[in-house]
Amino acid sequence: MVEHSTTSRSSSAIRVKQTLIMLIGTVLAGVMVVLGLWQMNVFESQQNNSTQARIDQPVITWNKAPKRADVMAQYGRRVRITGTFKPSTSTMVGTSWPVRAVEGMRLTSGETIAVVRGQISKGQEIPSAPSGTVTLTGVLAASESDEHRNPQMPAAVLPSLRLEVLTQTWPQPLVPATLTLIEQDARAQGLSPAQPVLPKGDGGERNRGYALQWWVFAIFTIAMSIAFTRAAGKHKD
Questions:
Q1: 222: domain range?
Q2: Same domain? 32 vs 125
Q3: 207 and 184 share a domain?
Q4: How many angstroms from the chain centroid is the CA of residue 54?
Q5: Are residues 162 and 208 in the same domain?
Q6: Residue 57 lies inside a defined structural domain of this protein
Q7: pLDDT of 107-148, one tens digit each?
Q8: Superkingdom of the source (predicted)?
Q9: In whole angstroms, what is the distance from residue 157 CA to residue 166 CA?
Q10: Lowest-confidence segment of 23-37, 59-73, 203-217 by average pLDDT
Q11: Pairing of strands 78-93, 157-158
């Protein structure tokens, strides 16, 4: 009877120990998951602040398109251009509605730049671009990466704004950049403003790696907790 009571108390103590091991492991893993999410949120916040800070810098006025290297150095900045829209270049870009309305503008210096005038919803017609010489301001961006075409979208809608595609039919020379109009200029043309597609800042992969590292630690902690719990049970046997 005494031996049975002792064995029962021993089993209860081991179960308590197993429960504590799993509880501590779960709490630690939860903390690591939260730290990973925090790492990602901090990175995204810093990246967004950096992008917005660049957009908020003083507007650059182009009397003519700069050299390619100078254009690339101005990606993410607001640029003011003067020129004439070319209706024959009007196109739509996107993989889902709303899509962006894009049209080429011939600068006074002779180059053509792809201007994202704004965005339109399904069934909405693209308002005609202003005629004659106009001065507009927008955010400068690079040619976009290739995107898979959505089969449910009209064939005339390009999946992404790639200069390599436009250069086949648009007037030359083509400025190695796109310009997304600021809200004021987009609405003045009867369009909703579009968001400029800007490249991710440096360090993106590194910061995502830091976040993933915390989640790997969390999985490892749970696995070790399970292993220790089983070991405690075997010790009872």
A1: 7-51+202-234
A2: no
A3: no
A4: 16
A5: no
A6: no
A7: 999 999 999 999 999 999 999 999 999 999 999 999 999 989
A8: Bacteria
A9: 13
A10: 203-217
A11: parallel
